[in-house]
């Protein structure tokens, strides 16, 4: 019982996606008003409940063709009210709404496009052969709604084919996850595959770009290597980020500085993370490094210690550690974080104030100026009006 | 920003029907653009393609310049004059990309002279939000609507306030139909106090996130939208109330915990992250806290703020203000929730600070100006650049330093902490006895830590909180001895009585680490310091209490175990082969200041 309550209470915080509990079809009856004419499973939504919310289901004209979600105490009802104007109907118009019902604490945005598409399918069927209004609504719809609910809940997609009268019609429904927009991709960032690229027909840009994504080339370099326009590469990489295939990491340089995050303790405690880490950062697959050395190297990453310093102190090849992979893994898992340098020029007269204002990191500046960070840093060091902030 | 409301709508429904009384913001002048929809010819035949093509047109949005557009008052009032079954509970409706949330409230007017017989009236104050607004934002707005409902219900019962205001607004509406509708809401805004309150509420929610109203000049209504209030210093990152709740690292309990447990559960879980050794840092000068306090009216808050200093930890603060520690925790959580304060580790000379990863410092930042106002002659960027590398107060002031310079330095650090520009680094310790880490960790902890979870460890150790206070005074006087746990004393005394002195050393080692796996024991014994019984004993004790799992920083261990820094540092140095240290921010404190 406790467990049930626990599971029930969880989606509220995360807004988790939940299954469809019920699909019902409701129409405006010329004499009886709004009624549910078909429901799968039967009697899931009671007559009384429906009456109290029918105003949100068979709506005023201004709200036609809007996705409307009502959240009740126990249910969430998602509908898309539709009106078809035609003289043949008793009131010159036919109102209907196909609604999905979910748990009240589940996320339902992902079903919106499905409801819209399914409703449009029904509109077409109705217009072509009075599929809904001919009086056998329940018998006609029952199998369709059952199939849609079962398929969407189990497979996440559904292919409907109808052979009721002459010819066949088909429609395909699929639940699309709605994710947050990925943040913009910068020239100096490095894309890295975190998943296998799914086998499918990718667009031409992606096909041309992906071979150069190796976890070491930054975006501007990939653009140059693949001979694709810079903005196209960014768009393509951003798209891959959206699908979770690619993650962005900072450019690896031996002069980089990293620092540990509180997540480092997970590496000591989580055996699964440990084994993934060792296989990833090992120089060879045959003989893996040992966790104590790896942990020591991570622990030694503080502000002021460059990767070069670390390599001199630990000599990673001796420990069977690939330092590039070590940094990559740490950044991807959030064990460590890059410490960026932000040069600020305090000399008011300088025309460099725009660049060295403190809002651009050194990486950004190097990439846009095409200078190596060593060169730039040496130059900045000589100028006393420049202050370097590390954060 | 998706946490600000798009619009606030007030709807009533009674025996005379439903009506939208007021909405804010409203357009003062009607836009005179001709409606794009041409009148439909009633003789055209509906084409299948036409209806189907509509689906390719993106569903129209009702949001224009961060306000709600496109719905007439009639539609909105019919939507929000809900049926009886939906009253007095949360109401949530999403239409395309707008989410409406409210708490429809039934009022039972007890006025005898009420001409409509039933006397039941529904008022519904609806907030229109972006559909993307998260669950917690929706929850907060629902709460606000609910509170408003309660206030209105009370005021209706007390003096018929709502009926009077409603009558006023309806009459303006009725007059408006003859005068033209454009200025109706403007007139209402001038005449009705409820409309004014709604306007003020909307403006406050959009700017600060703090609402402070006195409805009908009688009942105070104060509300805080944490997602908004905490935003000014965490650019772009939205703080959820659960964030303040969530850091359930471990429960530090004081002795009164059990009695106040139910209260605490209903309070924010921010309390759980608080420790007696943390300290409170007000974000505003004390003088500015007055208007906040008059609202709250709690005498204990006043008492606590009288004794406030960022250099005191909460325990001292509680003692000075003569309050219980748990009450000070609650007050602190309250201040943090209302974004009046933040929590830091008390400023002392060993604290190491670095620049916060998302500190908004650049040449155009208004903070630079603000800083030089408080500290003439100093430049924020120059001062903060000294914290590019982890720097402690002790490092920065040398003994020759003038005391005034030192206090200036502390003031600048406090200023930067108040503006969340600095974070403190703590040293954490990880026990790694063998090359393969803690492979046998599972049975290790099962075997020797009777209370294996870190939570219970802290529980049990802070149990001795009151004792620790006493003995601390002693230890600071110089004669510090590490108190031995009773079992260890037992083990030793048995040893001494039954074994010869030659084997003694070997045996006490074995005894002390009896519950450690063989592999770990052998690697520990390679360390020369194990020959000193005191060191080994301390090591074993701290290890058993799971302090070396990266969950406790040095300062916490010092506090809980009543140790001095030098003792602990020596131990760490002696056992550095099996103990790895690293520096990072305290997640419990970092959540108050920056994204982690």
TrEMBL record, chain A:
Pfam family, one: NPR2
Listed GO biological process terms: cellular response to amino acid starvation; negative regulation of TORC1 signaling; positive regulation of autophagy
Gene Ontology MF: a single term: GTPase activator activity
Cellular component annotations (GO), alphabetically ordered: GATOR1 complex; vacuolar membrane
Family designation: Belongs to the NPR2 family.
PANTHER family: GATOR COMPLEX PROTEIN NPRL2, NITROGEN PERMEASE REGULATOR 2/TUMOR SUPPRESSOR CANDIDATE 4
Protein name per UniProt: Nitrogen permease regulator 2-like protein
Organism name: Callosobruchus maculatus
Automatic annotation (TrEMBL), chain B:
Entry's localization field: Lysosome
Database matches in PANTHER family: CGTHBA PROTEIN -14 GENE PROTEIN (PTHR13153), GATOR COMPLEX PROTEIN NPRL3 (PTHR13153:SF5)
Family listed: Belongs to the NPR3 family.
Function: As a component of the GATOR1 complex functions as an inhibitor of the amino acid-sensing branch of the TORC1 pathway.
Name of this chain's protein: GATOR complex protein NPRL3
Keyword Signal in annotation: yes
GO cellular component: GATOR1 complex; lysosome
All copies of domain GATOR1 complex protein NPRL3 C-terminal HTH, residue ranges: 519-580
Pfam families documented for this protein: HTH_NPRL3 (PF24064), NPR3 (PF03666)
Keyword Signal: yes
Keywords carried by this UniProt record: Lysosome, Signal
Superkingdom in the source lineage: Eukaryota
GO BP term, example: negative regulation of TORC1 signaling
Transmembrane segments: none
